[in-house]
Structure formats: structure tokens, C-alpha cells
Amino acid sequence: FVRLDPDFQSGQADQLIAGLKQMGVQDGWLEGLKESWLAWQHSSHSNEGWPLHAYLDKLVSDVRVKAGVWAKKNAPGTSDPYKAYLSAHPDLPQPWVHELLADPQNLAKWQSLKSQMASSSLVKDYKEHAEQTPWSAEKLKSYNESLDGKILIPQPFGTPRNAYEAESGFCISRYMVIEVIVAFLVFYAFRWLAKRMKSSDAPKGKAWNFLEGMVQAVRSNVVVPAMGEHDADRFMPFLWTMFFFILGCNLMGMIPWVGSPTASLGTTAALAGLVFAIGVFFGVKAFGIVGYLKNICPELGLPWYIAFWVVPLLWIIEFASLFIKHAVLAVRLLMNMGAGHLVLLGILGIGVSLQTAMALSTPAWMGVAGLSVLGTTVLSFLELFVAFLQAYVFTFLAALFIGSAIHHH
Prior knowledge:
Blueprint: H1 6-22, H2 27-30, H3 33-43, H4 52-74, H5 81-88, H6 95-102, H7 104-117, H8 120-132, H9 137-147, H10 174-199, H11 206-227, H12 229-252, H13 265-295, H14 304-352, H15 354-359, H16 362-406
């Protein structure tokens, strides 16, 4: 937020202009540069938050793209489309920056100057100055509006995000935090259950009976029908973990302002990728690499002259479906969880939206709002059922896919 502060960016621009002067840029060229940059910032919503050095870089990159297109039509034989385009278009905005950065020595100095502008010391100096100089009420209001309702997650592995660059590094998202919370809850719940089961033979208490009943239900009604009694116990730790983790993530979506991690493609793709990796690993372990690849296509018992044409085609289809079915496994969980929340948002939004309140009289609006809240409440109970159902379906399909990989067809 500090780097997007207009006052911070203004001071940063002054330091950049001073650095350009040290590089030998004439004062006449720099005259009006700051004003042009500010006008460009306000010319489009997509330009907001871009600092001066990013503005100059964008000018150069845009011209280079245009030069490539222009050279194909107007100067196909030129060895340097960029220089040819500059010669043909002398009226470009800030033409001096193109001449400056065409020199390799100046380009190296420019990169060094930009790194100084990105230094955290500038932010530190600005904060120290802000502590000594009280902010205006308007500035405080702007910051409060920007931060209102937001939870700022520390990013020890990633660089700060801004309005003009893609976020780099390993960044911690809200869903990652929720997933860690769910993982700890699942771990401690079943650690508690394991201790109770070791200390006594008969289940005691509602929590104990509920958890043990869920564990038995997943094994007997989900995994064993899909995989068989013989192989079920080998994969039960993984499939139990998968079921309860997905269930916990789904239920987190029922808490207001929290959100369900399974409504994110990154989460569902990681879960499906884990199922794929386990299926391939144990399939290769059971049959070997060649045997696993042969096992992808079932034995049809066809005569050789028919199998010669049918089996290769069928193998290609089955090999492609090996990837497709795991991709669908990820997408179906994503869509089922995401769609439910969107429906809840849409129904609730009908009654509480500003447009509805302005279009209807007070009694009519109260009736519409009441119906929308009632509908949202009813559908929320359906979402609770869907949370359990999708955990069941994902675990059942995971057991089915792994079972098909380790069994001979």
C-alpha cells in the first residue's frame, strides 16, 4: 500500500529524475516528464499505481512491439526494426528514453537506478517521515478505505505485490492458511480418537462415536466397494486423510468471509494430481513400467486381425483418458463447490442489493429481502449436504482410479 501511495510515488519520481540527470539526460528532456506520467496514470484505470520508471519501461516495450509489426509491412529487410521505427516516427512521446536505453552502458545504469527505486529503504524512509509529519484526514480516509475488511497475510517467501508486475516467489494465500488450519484440526481430532481407542474397547461419548462411525463408513461404503476388501486397507490412511481434509475444506466455505479452498483450482488440481501420482506409482510397482502401460488397455479377447487395428486405437484413447479423468476429478470438485457459493451469493444479492432497494417500496423490499434470506438459509443446508457428498464422491473416485491402476484388466 505504501508503494501505491501517490505521495510516495511522487517522491520516488523526483529521485528517479535526479538519477536520470546524473546519467546525462538533459534538463529540457526531463521538463514536463512528471506531469506526463501523472496524466498517463489518470488516463486509464489500468495505469493506476504505475511508478515513473515502470511508465518509461512500458513506453519502450510498447514501441518495440509496434516496431516489430511495422517492420514486417514497411521495412522487411531491416536488421534493426526498433531503430528503423524510431527514425520513421520522430514524434513519439518521450523520444529521449528510446535513445538513452539503446546504449548498453546506459541500459545497465538504468537497471541499477530502477533497483534503487525498488529498494525497501525508500519505504522505510517514507514511513519514518510519516511518523514525524501527521497525515491529513483525507489521506487517512483513503488508507482506511483501502485496508477496510482486508486481512494482510505476511509473505516471507514472496516479493510485495504491486499494480504493474506479476507477483513473484512462493506467496501464501488465504486458502493456504485455511488448508493448514483444516490439516491441524483433522490431525488433532484423529490423534485424540486414536488415544481414546487405545485406552478403551467401547466407544464413549458423542464425538468418539461420530468420528469412529465416519471412519468405518468411509472404509465400508466408499473404499471397499471401489477397491475391494483385499487392497482397501493398504490405501485407507491416504483415503481417510483425503476424505476428511476435503470435508473440512468444504465446511470452511460455510463460515462467512472464510471461503472454501476446494473452490480454488489450485487446491483441487493438487489433490487430483496426488491421486494420479499414487495410482501411477503403485501401478508401476505392481506390473513394472511396460506392464503398467499394457494394463492401461483391457484385454478384449479379439482375433489378432481385429486386435491389430482396434487395440492400438483403444490404447491411445485409454492413455489420454488417464489424464483426462484426473483433470475432470479436479474440475468437478471445483465447480460443485464454487457453483454453490455463487448461487448463495446471487440469491442473497437479490434482496440486499442497492438496486433492489431503490426500485421497490419499503414493504416490497422487505418482502423480497426476507425471501432471499430465507432462500439462502434453505440452500445453506443443501450446501452442508453437498460438502459431505463431494468429499464422498472425490474419495470414491480416487479409490476407483487407484484400484484400476493396481488391478489387472
